[in-house]
Design brief:
single chain
């Protein structure tokens, strides 16, 4: 409407929006108000009964109407070979899903790798595990499902945040991995950083110590433990989501 109005620069066109019209009883008042001015009504109503009410009331007041949504729906119906849902508010719902996803992604970045333990209390789900168990990719995957996930690295030399022992067990997931698999992953990681692969970080002795320590913390927290060895993030996430949604039903 703004684009069309811009083609009449010598006219002062004012656009008045009336959102969330979902009841036919609202339409007579809207049309009557519009009739008090030199105006037309452009509408994006999708429910047939609302469109009929709009046309009926507009004819009473000799108002010009423009159905913006109708021709597009008709064209898409021909293209898709199936009728539209005719459900109001789907764009708002889609927008809300998008913003929820963005919020979850920002949360995962902010509270990645135990940067701020305060995020644990606000997280929908907390992921625990030693280094290189795919905690961050898992949290990002969950974020795309609109789940706010924080992850906490478990290191023998650093006491875990007390917040994890205050959460219900079903709001946490522990990730473990077979020592030989972790050894290979860490050796490759060191190579990518230009470091020698015989560093303590990738030694089997160190790995066994970390895994034993992490398992003790996870058992103390009482959370489910998933073996992520040789699993794609999607596979691990599938198990995590199953546990998470089961916990959601438990909360209710």
């Amino acid at each position: 409407m703004r684009a069309a109005a811009s083609q009449f620069q010598d006219c002062a066109v004012e656009i008045h929006r009336v959102p969330y019209v979902n009841d036919a009883s609202e339409i007579p008042e809207i049309v009557e108000e519009a009739a008090g001015f030199n105006s037309m009504i452009a509408y994006t109503l999708v429910l047939p009964e609302l469109k009929e009410a709009m046309l009926r009331e507009a004819q009473k007041h000799n108002l010009i109407t423009v159905d913006i949504m109708g021709p597009v729906l008709e064209a898409l119906t021909k293209l898709e070979g199936r009728p539209p849902k005719l459900e109001p508010g789907l764009v708002r719902k889609t927008d809300q899903d998008y913003f929820s996803k963005m919020e979850a992604i920002e949360f995962a970045v902010k509270f990645d790798d135990g940067k701020d333990p305060r995020g644990i209390s606000y997280a929908d789900l907390v992921v625990l595990g030693v280094s290189r168990t795919s905690k961050t990719p898992l949290c990002m995957y969950l974020a795309h499902r609109r789940i706010k996930a924080a992850n906490v690295p478990l290191v023998p030399e650093v006491a875990p945040p007390e917040e994890i022992f205050q959460l219900p067990p079903h709001r946490m997931i522990g990730l473990t991995i077979r020592p030989a698999v972790l050894n290979e992953i860490r050796r490759e990681r060191l190579k990518s950083l230009g470091l020698t692969s015989d560093a303590d970080y990738a030694s089997m002795e160190r790995i066994l110590k970390e895994l034993e320590y992490a398992e003790g913390i996870m058992k103390k927290a009482g959370c489910p433990i998933i073996d992520a060895s040789n699993k794609a993030v999607e596979e691990t996430a599938s198990k995590v989501l199953e546990i998470y949604y089961r916990g959601q039903r438990y909360d209710k």
